[in-house]
Amino acid sequence: MEKPRLIARFAQPMRGLLHRFAYLGLIVAAFGLMMLGKIDALLMDRLRVHVVDAVAPIMDALSRPAAAIDGAIDKGRELARIHDENARLRAEVETLRQWESAARRLETENESLKTLLKWSPPPEATFVTARVIADVGGTFVHSMIVAAGERDGVRKGLPVMTGDGLAGRIAAVGNHSARLLLVTDLNSRIPAIVERTRTRAVLAGDNTDRARLIYLSDGGPVAAGDRIVTSGHGGVFPPGLPIGVVVSVAENGVLVKPFVERAQLDFVRVVDFGLAGILEGPPPPRVEPAQRRRAPRKEAAKGDEGGGR
């Protein structure tokens, strides 16, 4: 009994000394390791590698439960997101089924009316896909160069489209390239119509990212969110081509945001709907050389005749 008590009596002061000088010992050890690293860098690298090898299994064992918990949390969030998305898709599918039923009914009715009216369908449109190779626009011009020209069947006035809607029209054509005038250019004027109210107008560009509706006819009121499509007037564009959506209606005009953004144009389709397009105007009458020579004689004869009188 005396021996364990004697050991405990000496152990308590030693434990107190260790607690008192532990922090100071760690500082001294760290300083010694720093000095050793300055003296012998290779020795410290080998020591560091051995320490990491010894501690790596412990760190791996400790990190696996945390990784498992993180994976379980991520799977729970993913399941919740999939559940919400599934509910949304079910509602969307139900809405699309209703629209499909309405579309089939309207298609059957449309075919019946076409048969009664002996309607002749327009010729099928042809198109040329071209790449936008240059943006020659700036602050005052909104136009681009496409890699298709007369050799590809491109003509002046043909509409240029993307999958989103109408981008503009061909303003000038060369043999291998053509200039695309965007709907936002200051010189662009497109006969348009408000799809909801059938109000006719002209879509005019102003060299900004928006276009304006001018010359609005007497129709229903135009509101933000209304779709703007081509009206087909003038024989340049067919009716129904999507252009943009109304973003604001104010006293200074109706602003339209085009569906096609200038910064995202890469590939376009130059579409030929078989319309007359923009006419270049009749060529000047040709005067034969013989008529040019006889004209002065006739005038001279009239002058002599008048002088004789």
Write structural notes for this entry.
With 309 residues, the protein is α+β, with helices and mostly antiparallel strands. The protein has a domain of 147 residues: Beta Barrel (Thrombin, subunit H). Helix 1 packs across helix 2. The strands form 2 sheets. It has a 6-stranded antiparallel β-barrel. Strands 6-7-8-11-10-9 form a 6-stranded antiparallel beta barrel. 44% of the residues lie in helices and 23% in strands. It is elongated, with a radius of gyration of 41 Å.
Q: What would you say about this model in short?
A:
This protein has 309 residues and is an alpha+beta fold. It has helices at 2-39, 41-117, 289-308; strands at 126-135, 143-146, 159-161, 166-173, 178-182, 189-194, 200-205, 211-214, 227-230, 242-250, 253-258, 267-272.
